[in-house]
Design goal:
- The strands form 3 sheets. Strands 3, 4, 5, 6, 7, 8, 9, 10 and 11 form a 9-stranded antiparallel β-sheet that branches. Strands 1-2-17-14-19-13-12 form a 7-stranded antiparallel β-sheet, with no helix packed on it.
- It is 5% helix and 43% strand.
- The chain is globular.
- A hairpin with a 5-residue loop joins strand 6 and strand 7.
- It is built from 1 helix and 19 strands.
- By secondary structure, it is mostly beta strands.
- The chain binds (2S)-amino(carbamoylamino)ethanoic acid (UGY) and manganese (II) ion.
- The site of manganese (II) ion has 4 residues, from loops.
- The site of (2S)-amino(carbamoylamino)ethanoic acid has 8 residues, from strand 13 and strand 19.
């Protein structure tokens, strides 16, 4: 065969390939960063040690530097590791995505948390988080801004009741009590393939979302993004937002929403 026909064949076989490893393409990323939204995909994560943390690296995905009123980051705790304390006045929510941590409060309560367990630490009691065998945590923090009495609690995602979603089809759980003691909530939303948000939402609240399972299309402003498990989305106030779950497996995402805060 001539070199020419050889080239022709290899180009054709590339075209027929259905799975293209975009992540291996130098310089390619699905991540974007705009004034009112961002998509941060796994190949863009940058890990670093943080002062006060032991045997841990973190990757900040959203922070006040993005214009957000909260921080959202992943923490990769190795063996014999410990979390640093949050900034004075900050409250902290953790979800265990991998491995196991032990959480101890200042009044001596101690609980072991595994996959899909979560805990909330009020600003006056950041407790202690340690891991003997390693763990991956998703963490949200914000400066507490109310005069309420938020308290430590922990739970398991599936142990949190399904809530009514009038006019919508997705399944909804809220992991933080809906009282005036708390200035944000963490929702877990489940969609079957083909289900989508009915409201094409525009609202004053901010969001920090992580896709935990599945894949679909996120509309943010005028852009339509294919998203999948591991992707993170920052939504600034008033960005038009809409999601449809696609593919063959259900979508689950976790999403921060600043509630109980006067928008004025
Ligand atoms: O509660 C919410 O604002 C939520 N439904 N938004 C979203 O999923 N983008
Ligand atoms: Mn929303």
């Amino acid at each position: 065969t001539s070199p020419r026909s050889h080239n022709y064949t290899s180009v054709l076989s590339l075209t027929r390939k259905t799975q293209i490893a975009f992540n291996d393409l130098p310089g390619f990323t699905r991540s974007v960063y705009y004034r009112d939204h961002a998509l941060i995909t796994p190949e863009s994560r940058v890990w670093a040690g943080q002062p006060g943390w032991t045997n841990t690296v973190t990757s900040h995905l959203i922070s006040p530097a993005s214009g957000a009123n909260f921080a959202m980051y992943l923490a990769d705790l190795k063996t014999e590791s410990a979390a640093g304390a949050p900034a004075p006045g900050a409250e902290r929510f953790i979800l265990v995505v991998e491995g196991e941590v032990t959480v101890t409060t200042s009044d001596g309560r101690s609980v072991d948390l595994r996959h899909n367990d979560y805990a909330y630490f009020p600003p006056h009691d950041s407790g202690k988080i340690t891991s003997a065998t390693g763990s991956g945590l998703l963490i949200y923090e914000r400066m507490y801004n109310l005069k309420g009495k938020p308290e430590f609690f922990n739970g398991h995602v599936e142990g949190s009741p399904l809530l009514p979603t009038p006019g919508e089809v997705f399944e909804l759980r809220k992991l933080i009590p809906q009282t005036a003691d708390y200035d944000f909530n963490i929702h877990v939303m489940d969609f079957k393939p083909g289900e989508h948000l009915f409201v094409k939402e525009v609202h004053y609240n901010q969001h920090g979302l992580m896709m935990l399972e599945g894949q679909g299309i996120y509309r943010l402003g005028d852009n339509w993004y294919p998203v999948q498990s591991g992707d993170v989305v920052w939504m600034a106030p008033f960005v038009p937002q809409w999601y449809a779950a696609l593919g063959t497996t259900p979508t689950r995402y976790i999403i921060y929403k600043d509630t109980t805060v006067d928008p004025l």
